[in-house]
Specification:
The structure is a single chain. With 117 residues, the chain is mainly alpha-helical. It has one domain. The protein has 5 helices and no strands. The longest helix is centred in the first third of the chain and has 22 residues, at 2-23.
């Protein structure tokens, strides 16, 4: 419970800081709500769900989507680079999840056990 409270507090501080910097025009004009939700979900997948094959793929992937979205919106990269990059990243994360000794999430383990019976 304490870990969850710390994570929520840090996310609130980061969100408030980003909002302040955006209002002071320090940050570029980006839809920070979208980027913030993607980043928060990625961080929550990595920290709250424990380390498993699903969180190892979805957490980093959502963070990559957020970063590449900001780069696209600030015209650092184009959509023609963003989308293929995300496909490559997703494939690489899936490959790492398959070959790594990281366990399946409990919910998927239960489904596998039921199918074996």
């Amino acid at each position: 419970m304490k870990k969850a409270a710390i994570i929520v507090a840090v996310l609130i501080i980061v969100g408030g800081t980003a909002l302040l910097l955006n209002n002071l025009r320090v940050l570029p004009e980006v839809d920070w709500m979208w980027t913030g939700w993607l980043s928060a979900c990625g961080i929550l997948f990595l920290t709250m769900g424990g380390m498993n094959k699903v969180s190892c793929v979805l957490g980093p992937f959502l963070l990559a989507v957020a970063v590449l979205d900001v780069l696209n919106r600030t015209e650092q990269i184009s959509r023609s680079v963003q989308i293929p990059s995300l496909v490559i990243i997703f494939g690489a994360l899936l490959l790492l999840a398959v070959v790594s000794p990281v366990p399946l999430p409990v919910a998927l383990t239960q489904i596998e056990d039921e199918e074996k019976d």
